[in-house]
Write a structure and sequence with these properties.
5 strands
């Protein structure tokens, strides 16, 4: 078993199922508290779901890479894809207090990531989106 997660897969409907087992094994191996393991799972699920749904505009799934490691008492993750350039950190914060029929569609997953993560960053590296996050372990 590895001290890190380093997965390369296709951003399609099976991506989350393939990642889930790796996240569970990582959490167990490192003795992560249930809250930390759940936070890691939620953050990765939200970010990967966005890549699967919106990352490759032509409808054909493309590659996605996930790396997760422990560093200085934190969980550090990186998600990389070769899809359409998109900076999730620049999204407006949704009005969670608005009535349901007045809310705009989208943005709640990214809001959840912002809420859970100690750090959340984006950069474009050539033709790739690179999102990094840091969570309390």
């Amino acid at each position: 078993m590895s001290d890190v997660i380093d997965i390369s897969l296709t951003a399609d409907a099976t991506a989350l199922a393939r990642i889930e087992g790796a996240l569970e094994a990582f959490a167990e191996q490192h003795g992560l508290a249930p809250k930390a393991a759940y936070g890691l799972s939620l953050v990765v699920e939200e970010l990967v779901t966005n890549i699967v749904k919106y990352g490759y505009g032509d409808g054909a799934p493309g590659p996605v890479w996930l790396a997760v490691r422990l560093e200085d008492g934190s969980i550090v993750g990186t998600l990389t894809d070769a899809g359409i350039a998109f900076d999730p950190t620049g999204m407006d914060t949704p009005d969670v207090d608005a009535e349901m029929d007045e809310r705009h569609v989208g943005g709640l997953g990214v809001h959840l990531v912002r809420t859970l993560a100690e750090e959340f960053a984006y950069h474009r590296d050539g033709d790739r989106n690179v999102v990094t996050f840091r969570l309390a372990a």
